């Protein structure tokens, strides 16, 4: 979604941020309905960037569409890829336009591939008048397990899984967050797959997650991860194991 074309408003960055916050708030109703239907919760991350792009009818006479291309739209896509579920991240170019009316939880420098310097991303949790929108506090809640569960952790490279997995232990778990301890430090925002059963098992049990934070503990690292997908048997397996 883009703002400022075909009709240009002077406050397009603020409109974009307000829209993003409203979208996140709307997910509460979506997940309430999912819960009633026995479906897992859904989460999304939103990235916003401000800058010049090429916009218009793009294509040929046979097939064309009204769209947008350029570096700044690509950067917005990369910012979205750096989010956790429920987040709204904005770039400095957007922040400069809305800094007087937004509420920011924190700032995180991120280095994107092909970009020489880190870019500060602002974690927006609210916007003041005339929109008056605020996100609820994000709680990284997990239940400590009675005993750790041995798992295999794979780093994801796009949609492909790394060839070799890492031996790890699952120590905390909820339907949204999981904590895994592994000897190797894994960078925040790295997408991972956590396997509870071996490849030879026909009914493999696994989940996908994104690393949120990393804490060193003696000679190992504790990784708090936000779950992005889990197979139906994961919760049953974890409860049965513990």
Give an overview in words.
- Residues 20-80 form the Guanylate cyclase domain.
- This is Guanylate cyclase domain-containing protein.
- Pfam families: Guanylate_cyc (PF00211).
- By secondary structure, this protein is of the alpha+beta class.
- It folds into two domains: 12-134, Alpha-Beta Plaits (2-Layer Sandwich); 143-241, Thrombin, subunit H.
- Helix content is 21%, strand content 40%.
- It is built from four helices and 14 strands.
- The protein has a six-stranded antiparallel barrel.
Average pLDDT taken over every residue? 90
The SSE string, one letter per element, is HEEEHEHEEEEEEEEEEH
The main sheet comes to: 6 strands, antiparallel, barrel
Q: CATH topology of the largest domain, what is it called?
A: Alpha-Beta Plaits
Instruction: Write out the strand line-up for the largest beta sheet, numbering strands in chain order.
Output: 8-10-11-14-13-12
CATH architecture of the largest domain: 2-Layer Sandwich
Helical residue percent? 10-25%
Q: How many beta-strand segments?
A: 14
Total number of distinct structural domains: 2
CATH level-four homologous superfamily name of the largest domain: Nucleotide cyclase, GGDEF domain
Uncertain spans, ≥5 residues at pLDDT below 50? none
Question: Which band does the percent of strand residues land in?
Answer: 35-45%
CATH class of the largest domain: Alpha Beta
Coarse shape: globular
In angstroms, what is the radius of gyration? 20 Å
Question: Helix/strand-derived class?
Answer: alpha+beta
The first-to-last residue Cα distance is 44 Å
- Count every helix, treating DSSP H or I runs of 4 or more residues as helices: 4
